[in-house]
Amino acid sequence: MTNVFSDIIQFRGNHYDFGYMQGEQLKNSPILLNRKKQWKSRWRNYLVEENEVKQVFTRFAPAIWEELNGLSDALSMKMVDAIREFGGYYYEYGRSGCSIFTDSDYMIRNYDNAPLSYEGRYVLYQPTDQGYAVIGPSMQITGRTDGMNEKGLAMGYNFVNRIKSDDGFVCNMIGRIVLETCATVDEAVSLMKEIPHRHSFSYVLLDQTAESVVAEVSPRDVIIRKANICTNHFEELTEENRYRMDDSLRRQELMEKQQRNVRDPYNAYRMLNDTDKGIFSKKYGAWAGTLHTAAYLPKEMKSWIALGGDRQPLIFDFNRWLTGEKLHATKIKGILDSSDGFINR
Predict the structure, then answer these.
(1) Predicted confidence (pLDDT) per residue in 161-204, tens digit
(2) Which domain holds residue 307?
(3) Most buried by CB count within 10 Å: which residue of 17, 125, 161, 225?
(4) Residue 287, phi then psi, degrees to nearest 5
């Protein structure tokens, strides 16, 4: 068993200053050092054409480009290296699990991956230049694993396949751009159809109108379907699926069977977080162990999160934070049934 934690990061201001603040924090954090140890020199093999990436950011998320500039300046890092580290473009994504269950009022999500892939950063950011405020865990610093914005749009994604990848944004940056620029499911679906995708993922979307869809996305196609359960395979774009889907199908079937007992968000949360329900995963060595269980309640504007299994969630009132109230909590603590911890140690 290993004790883990996520730092709670709060910031209000423009994107450049947000990036600079994060860069200053990263100077005193083991995150970048540990990531470089894992990737060694492999990340330098990802060819990045700065002007090409800038053009794509300028079209879809110009403010996040300013955040990258802030990170670059704070860390005295060349912009091309900042793009590789934080840009969410041309980034190889490890195989992972993940399960999502939605109802008209909430989204519950297990994020499954290797502990050493997890940064341990839970971010609340309210921009003053452009874009919506967002709450959720970070990935690759600038990206988000899941989250909710000030309009009550919630998003989570599940890995499907990285074979036949193409030029484009990876999942965590697409999630960030969706949350910062879209107010509704319809707006998010339109963006999904325009933005370039590097890998194949399912994106689950829910807004305050109770509209909920699964966007099956590959570098070649985007299909939208109605569903309240999503794991790690496509139902429509089946030609994009991995050969091995046994565990994904197993978790889907378990949620389908157990949903008759779900009466409220807490029941749904327990279905995914309790280790005896069969959906929570301890396969940490196979890049498929559950690192966090998150819940997003768009109508209440509340966000829940827990690190590890069989735990009570820490609940954030996002509405109160949006009105200027500062959170006094600084860390989210948890325990994993793994010998590895997060890279923020």
Answers:
(1) 888 888 889 999 999 999 999 999 999 999 999 999 999 999 99
(2) 2-11+95-336
(3) 125
(4) 60, 30
